[in-house]
Amino acid sequence: MSTAQPTGRTRDDDTRFFGQPWSLVHIFGVEMWERFSFYGMQGILLIYLYYSATQGGLGIPEAVAGGIVGAYGGSVYLATILGAWLADRLFGSERVLFVSAIVIVAGHIALALIPGVLGVGVGLVLVALGSGGLKANATSVVGTLYAPDDTRRDAGFSLFYLGINLGGFLGPILTGILQSTLGFHWGFGLAAVGMTLGLVQYSFGRRSLPAAARVVPNPLPSSRYRLVIVIAVTAVVLIAVLVLLGVIRADNLAPIVIGVTVVAAIAYFTVILRSPRIDATERSRVWGFLPLFITSVAFWSLYQQQFTVLTIYSDKRLDRSLFGWEMPVSWVQSINPVFIIILSGVFAALWTRLGKRQPSTPVKFGLAAIIMGSAFLLFLPFAGGGENTTPVLAIVGILFVFTVAELLLSPVGLSASTKLAPAVFQTQMVALFFLSVALGTAISGQLVAFYDPENEVPYFSILGVIAIVVGVGLLLAVKPVLKLMKGVR
Fold it and tell me: What integer pLDDT is reported at residue 2 of this predicted model?
């Protein structure tokens, strides 16, 4: 007998995967391998860009390299718009997810096999497009596994988040070993192998997903197909021309992505709020999502500095010597996933036990911003030290605080975006949450230019205090925000 309800969602009595629907294991798996390849590659990307040619790198200035990494990271989440639109209007989430996995494999192969700046350009564009399509739609597919009133939803998203971080833990460790022993392109090659494994695994399990995962909620009329093709070709040509004319350059990628993301977010909110296909309750919930969006931007602009400022900090300020052996720089990026793996189950169990008594989504977001700001203030005792003076245990402790903040916001944000979404904008509301990540990530790349190792106190203190103020502001506004959310907590 089928486990699918008439709505296409899994029945509440399907608890075969740690109390969650069995279909979750297939999305768990492909996302785990995608994160393995994504974080494995990103763990060595920044140092590849700014290391000298004699070290196997490209010799790009650190501030420019940080901007490229931030812009790339922001572009990944910005690409969720395209992935969400393709799912909602043309193909459905599950099909877009599958094709996106293929594109990611191609991108990692390009990074591994094509030398120099050309390989970086081709590889990062493909990985950004593929990861954007996969991320928004994997989350949306997870949402189809649960009925709207299923109290397992937040716990299921936390378990899904565990899969993300299993990949995020192993990726930087293994690519870091290959990079430090055989060279950067071997590390990029391992990322390609990992994503290929994820693609193969998912291709066998995708058929068992509920029918709701393949539904196109807002089909595009066939009469508009030609217009869409013309717009797509025009956009590609325009970007190519701007690159050739020098308008889009490596040193201004971050502010360009920031600007595009701000415009996209405003446009998205406007389109959803003005749509005649949503009712008053759905419209109110979208307004309730706005303060969560702003808080999320503040959070990610600090958190994503793990891949920009913290990478430079780990390369130059961190004492990575362990019993005469030097730990690869990328290994620092595996610390956070370790804590996620340990704590995600704890948080999932906590939300499950508390049930309807757990803190509301705005409270979780506000606490996340406050804790994230506090984590930046923890860098202050080590400010002004020389090279290799910060002990590894200090970074471990700071990243533990990062993790607590992340678990209060990221899986909760994914869940909230599906709960607050109007029926015809399910995947695109998930994309809106990822737009907040895109904006925060691009800002994290731009902020590298303001980081001065000789005078770190203003940098860490100002950013930390700003995040705390944003979090306190949201906590003070919890009641009106919940009123807008119309029964969603």
Answer: 31
Higher pLDDT, residue 21 or 225: 225
Contact 187, 175 (CB under 8 A): yes
* Longest alpha-carbon distance in the chain: 67
Classify each residue of 149-173 as buried b or exposed e, where b means 16 or more C-beta atoms within 10 Å of its C-beta.
Answer: ebebbbbbbbbbbbbbbbbbbbbbb
Tokens of 381: 């005792």
Q: Looking at the DSSP assignment, which residues form a beta bridge with residue 319?
A: 391
**DSSP string for 294-328:** HHHHHHHHHHGGGGTHHHHHHHHTEE-EETTEEPP
Distance CA 329, CA 340 (A): 20
Q: Which residue's entry shows tokens 């994160």? A: 35
On the CB side of 185, CA atoms within 13 Å amount to 13
- With a pLDDT cut of 70, the percent of the chain lying above it is 92
Q: Could you give the domains of the chain?
A: 24-484 (1.20.1250.20)
Q: Which of 345, 350, 318 is nearest to 331 (CA)?
A: 318
Determine how many CB atoms are found less than 10 A away from the CB of residue 274: 9
> What distance in Å separates the CA atoms of residue 95 and residue 55, rounded to the nearest whole number?
41
Count CB atoms within 10 A of the CB of residue 478: 17
Residue 391 DSSP symbol: E
Question: Beta 321-322 vs 325-326: how paired, if at all?
Answer: antiparallel
pLDDT attached to residue 371: 93
Pairing relationship of beta strands 318-319 and 390-391 according to DSSP bridges: parallel
pLDDT of residue 6: 37
Which distant-in-sequence residues (6+ apart) come within 8 Å of 403 by Cβ?
Answer: 336, 339, 340, 343
pLDDT for position 488: 67
